[in-house]
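Hi everyone, sorry if this is the wrong subforum. Our group has a chain we'd like a structural model of before ordering constructs, and none of us has done structure prediction before. Sequence below.
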Amino acid sequence: MTDRALVVVRAGALTTVQDRGRPGYAHLGVPRSGALDAPAAALVNRLVGNSGDAAVLETTLDGCAVRPRSTVVVAVGGAPGPVAVAGRPAAWGAPVVVPAGELLEVGAARSGVRGYVAVSGGIAVEPVLGSRSTDLLSGLGPAPLAAGAVLPLGPAAGAHARVDVVPQPSPPAELVLRVTLGPRDGWFTPAAVRTFTSRAYRVSSASNRIGLRTEGPALERARPGELASEGMVLGAVQVPPDGRPVVFLADHPTTGGYPVIAVVRAADLPAAAQAVPGIPVRFVPVRRR
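Answer:
Right subforum, don't worry. Here is the predicted structure as tokens:
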């Protein structure tokens, strides 16, 4: 039994292991996966001295609690919320030492959705296709955390950052997504395209790591029927039969038969990871590059 490990005490609503994902396997039907808020995951890794590709924990809404078997340095970022070590308040967004056997508690998010917990050495579960990420769609990678699970840690590689706290973007009060129209915007009436780019939608509570679902005006088709299945990319805005746009996130399917009205700029997707149900969503068209 190695002492470089974390024992899961409270798994939370949904806590998964995530890294940069496994791009390059879409032709095999394997999604990219990886941390939804990649900048937040990269930041907490830097704070504890990890490389950028080290695996972290991604929590959803209500955090988690873990107990290290050896003394480690941790950093919690992403959605802001309370952090405690051995029952005492600890810093959020800064390196924190957790002694061997003491409990690290990450509380419920005060705003936003997804928190990120980096541990010195990284989560060292066995990689699958070059990544340690949990993929909820395909089932690749480690299962979502459960109480009692033991997560191995890699060797601590570097010194942690000597900072008190670092700035991180606030979760959005309104989600503004820049989109490039197409490739299937012609499947919708001109009025529907105007609605899509001018009306406010809201984030649906049915959103998950596969896609951000929206509530709002339905988009009317200009033509009936469905497409033959075609490739889907990260950020594709697919419109299912109910007419409400769905933004594909990291665990999205690699093919689909519903028309894609637009594609979201990659730089705007981390904010989508932190968009709580009910906040407004606006799709702003930009020119093709």
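For your construct planning: The first strand starts at residue 5 and ends at 10. The mean pLDDT is 95.
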